[in-house]
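User: If only I could read backbone structure tokens as easily as an amino acid sequence. Those tokens are not coordinates but codes from a learned vocabulary of shapes. Could you go through the record with me and say what the backbone is doing? Here is the record:
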Amino acid sequence: MADADAAVLSEAAPAKVNLALHVTGRRADGYHELESLVVFVDVADEITVRPAKVDRLKVGGPFAAATGNSESNLVMRAVRAFRDRWPDRLPDGLDIGLTKNLPVAAGIGGGSADAAAMLRLLARTGDGDFPVAELQKIALALGADVPMCLLSRPSEVRGVGEIIHTLRGFPPTHLVLVNPLVPVATADVFRRLESRTNPPMPALPQPLTRPAQLGLWLAETRNDLEPAAVALVPAIGELLREMRVLDGCALARMSGSGGTVFGLFGSAAQAHQAAHEMRARYPDYWVAAAPAIG
């Protein structure tokens, strides 16, 4: 049993939070041009792998039921894409465990983060070197958010998600995440956009190392998807109003296409107190407090 346990590798799939998200245009192929400041938070799904005779996926955790069948899951798609690119570099099969701690269709990259974590695990498991540039090509083919999740570092992201500039420094940041557990379809939000050509994000301070710098910069930014998502799910608007009046909340905004709302706080103590208050008000919602990963 000890040998079997030693063969298990694990990888965290941290939640993605769009601190700002600007929709700046629409391309001829129908995809939207985006600009975003992205951080990753220390609350995550987890993936484990061990060698097996065939590839198989077992999903557990509080949000397992909403994850979908194993063949369509992004984790299995990542495995197939990796095997297609590098045949005979992996064991014949992999026994994969996915613990879903993050809500699904929540604007925090759950499925994309899982696929990215799977790619990182496959690169650790496989025989030989796997260039990051090649992994990023696979990641982009799996979804627009997967390349940024592959890096899981504070980043300025443009295009459809393929242009990623990781930041050399980032100020200590504490977040509270709240999700009303109402899935929000990204396509539905984009269909409701009133404007698809909006002003770009302002230039980031260089270097961005102090919380005050981040706060001043964020005051000049927005999430262009937020009004459309609030119209679809009014609970998002209520959460934004409630978060903004909590002690120590410097900013409340929606992440991605919703419906997770985040609040930024100056300390871990303030964030945990705010999370406690939000759980008391919304006992049926998903609530988490965690620092951003620097």
Notes: Residues 1-6 have pLDDT under 50 and may be disordered.
